[in-house]
Amino acid sequence: MEILNSNNFTIAQIDRIIEMAWEDRTPFDAIKFQFGLTESDVKALMKKELKFKSYILWRERVENCKTKHVAKRVEGIDRFKCNLQRSITNNKISKR
After folding, report:
1. What gap in Å lies between CA 50 and CA 18, rounded to an integer?
2. Which are the contacts of 94, defined by CB distance < 8 A and separation ≥ 6?
3. Are 69 and 43 in contact (CB under 8 A)?
4. Is 50:58 a contact under the CB 8 Å cutoff?
5. Which of 15, 32, 43, 68 has the CA that lies 20 to 30 A from 7?
6. pLDDT mean values, one per 10 residues, the chain (96 residues)
7. How far apart (Å, rounded) are the C-alpha atoms in residues 90 and 44?
8. Which pLDDT does position 91 carry in this prediction?
9. pTM of this prediction?
C-alpha cells in the first residue's frame, strides 16, 4: 500500500483519521492499514488539523494509552473497537 500525502485525502477521510486517532482502542497499525499513514504521519496530520492545545492533549493521551501501540497492548485485546460500539458504515454511524 502506498503512503499518501494528507493533501490527497478528502475532508471525510481526514475526519475519519482524526476520529481513529482519538479512539483508545484503535492502534496506529489500523490507521496504517486503512489509510497508509505511519504513526509519524498521523502525528503530523493531527498537528496540522487540530488546535495546538487539542494536539497537546491528544499527544499526552497517546503517550499514556497502552492500546494505541500493538506491541504495548495487554494480551487478550485483539479488536479495534468495543463490542458495544455501533458498526460504522461509510463513515456514518448506523442504528442497530
Report:
1. 9
2. 86, 87, 88
3. no
4. yes
5. 68
6. 60 92 87 91 94 93 75 57 50 47
7. 25
8. 46
9. 0.65
pLDDT for 27 = 87
C-alpha dihedral sign at 66, 67, 73, 77: positive
What is the C-alpha to C-alpha distance for residues 31 and 38, in angstroms, rounded to an integer? Answer: 8
Give 88's strand partners.
93
Question: What does DSSP assign to residue 95?
Answer: P
Indicate the length of the chain as a whole number.
96
Candidates 94, 80, 85, 92; CA nearest to 32 is 80
Using DSSP's 3-state secondary structure scheme, residue 6 falls into helix
In this structure, what C-alpha cell is assigned to residue 71?
506491541
Written as one string, the DSSP assignment of 33-94 is HHH---HHHHHHHHHHHS-HHHHHHHHHHHHH-GGGSGGGSPTT---SS-TTSPPEETTEEP
